[in-house]
């Protein structure tokens, strides 16, 4: 069964060795058959059989070779890679001398469901909670799964029907249907927030100051069937746009969403994310015990691949892991964290897409070495993760925040926020104009820019520990056409230079709206004349 991103990558890499080419051809054919079956059969379709196997790997290059051959690698530890394969792929592995060890055959939900919430039970519980806590909770659907189940999203905040100046945060769980621990923990987390509001000061403060979103079950069809994949046979955490071929820019720059043709569950999450302004996020899995931070893929294979926010990502990952004793003391992952690609590289992952396209820092949190542990283990897992989930949520309030408005009418501006020396942008919310740029303590220079407005640079922004520094910004709706002749040229530049030198000029040359004319305004005029 072929994951979505692997299929696209396989179409690009024509120079792989023969066995990889043959495997990819078989994978593409199988995926097409599954997809066609989905279209014809709808809810009645049968989910194809999948084998979970272990194979020995020599090094990271060996892991990459398996991925390049179109196989779905789900984990690597101590020289062993876990794979999800079809019967044909299993035969290929055996014939190629890989000696795969079969651990499980999926679907297998019937023998595992005891003690875990079913989709129907989850739906009923969420609806009951929304009714009982109507003042701070809304339950909505992101859309339907292949088999018609709703992807429920829970919003918890003090004014759930009003867009406010507050950071938006999300937990998304169980894109792999055979990893349901996160769903259970998310339900516990939702209940804790709702029942603690007005009772627990910490919970009340978080709900009053944050838009908290939780999607407890991204892959309801896979969860009900007890299989990793959705009902079309796609791995949802390999089905987001692939870097760099499908990630050429950000949602702010106008880069296409590339949601068409994807598994419906993936497309729903993408559209929802692009419509919001999330600052921090995490998605929950099982099969290991670690916080995996981006990048998962920087087009270099399974090697350490840091983002521009490497130090911040490490801090956030450890903020979660240090409050989970088994995770923090992992014998395999120091301090319970890992860079994604340094562990093993994947294409089409959700966390990289969030970071690159939506400007949202996201981590992949593996909650349990066992993918589907006995229900008797769930209370202990909740004890291990409760404080970590709260701490990670609280981190959305770090850094610098504020509202960007236009000096023309005071209206909110959809703007880009850049930090000097850091290539990763943040964006304001379209409706409110608020931004929430997570940063570690330090002194920063920020630049705010938006179409139709002059950019504004603010230096010496001090970020301390604790709640974010407040920095509201007004962007000038003026242009560098100082003399109003409908063109920006050397005459406009000279006028701004004269004003900066304190010569009398019969035009407004304060291009950035700072209240005085200086070198920044001169540079803005030069940039305008050069068409920059």
Salient structural properties:
532 residues, alpha/beta, four-stranded antiparallel sheet, 22% strand, globular
Write structural notes for this entry:
This protein starts with a helix and ends with a helix. A hairpin with a 6-residue loop joins β17 and β18 (456-463). The chain has 532 residues and is α/β, with parallel strands linked by helices. The model is unreliable at 8-44 (pLDDT under 50). Helix content is 33%, strand content 22%.
Itemize the secondary structure elements and their pairings.
Layout: H1 4-12, H2 18-41, E1 50-56, H3 60-68, E2 72-77, E3 80-85, H4 87-95, E4 101-106, H5 119-132, E5 137-144, E6 150-156, E7 168-173, H6 181-196, H7 201-209, E8 211-215, H8 220-225, H9 264-275, E9 278-285, E10 288-293, H10 310-321, H11 325-328, E11 337-339, H12 340-343, H13 350-358, E12 361-368, H14 378-394, E13 400-406, E14 416-419, E15 422-427, E16 434-437, E17 442-449, E18 456-463, E19 469-470, E20 473-475, H15 490-500, H16 519-529
Helix pairs in contact: 6-14, 10-14, 15-16
Number of helices: 16
Spatially, the strands of the biggest sheet line up as 5-6-8-7-9-12-10-11
Strand count: 20
* Estimated radius of gyration: 25 Å
> Which structural class fits the helix and strand makeup?
alpha/beta
- Average per-residue pLDDT, rounded, comes to 91
Helix content: 25-40%
Strand residue percentage:
15-25%
Shape: globular
**Through-space gap between termini:** 48 Å
Q: What is the makeup of the main sheet? A: 8 strands, mixed
